[in-house]
Amino acid sequence: AGAKTVKRAVELDVASRFQESLVCYQEGIDLLLQVVKATTNEAKKQRYRQKISEYMTRAEDIKKHIEKEKQDGKYHKQIRIEENATGFGYEKLFHEYLTEIVSEVWVEDPYIRQVHQASRCLLYNFLRFCELLIKGPCKVKTIHLLTSYDVGSGRSQQMTALKEIKESLSNYGVTLNIDFSSSIHDREIRFNNGWMIKIGRGLDYFKKPQGHFSIGYCDFDLRPCHETTVDIFHTKHTKKM
To answer: What range does the domain containing 108 cover?
Structure first.
């Protein structure tokens, strides 16, 4: 398993998919270290240690390369979420980028509405995202939401729900600014520390749970996902919406 993992790491490295390569190097090194512990043959141990040292050196070089890309504003990480994949709750995707200096967040998603289906309601998804911001370690003070109006009777329900979210956030010292546009189509989230995340399906990449009391209804990490792509960029100057 260790050999296969580091082989995959090398392939990704050659393809310049450095972030994914780094993860495979780290996993492969851990597996090979376990092999070393279980091996009694000293000659084999020495060969494993030599290879591990080479992989650790390359992993460290990749770390430095990624850090330089971040500093130069050229960082780009792509996550491909496969159909029915689990383990991709909001904390998994966003927590790494919600550093302590984050105080302002911009959310652009045209479909923060659909209150007629609680299990697929994007208003609830947005609320869960806000809860993630409240838990920290970031110190968010302002959230800007740009979305579109719901249609028909759904509009009044949408406004009521957003008002409740706004009032609830104010109890935690967070201001929610809401704007509406009939022409937006992009879905992206920006933090004022320079991170920008674009998700093909926006916050609505989770499948409908089988029932109100089925696993995954409350914990998004356990809920199957729709296939989508997440692109993560780092820029020195965050463009505000």
So the answer is: 76-234
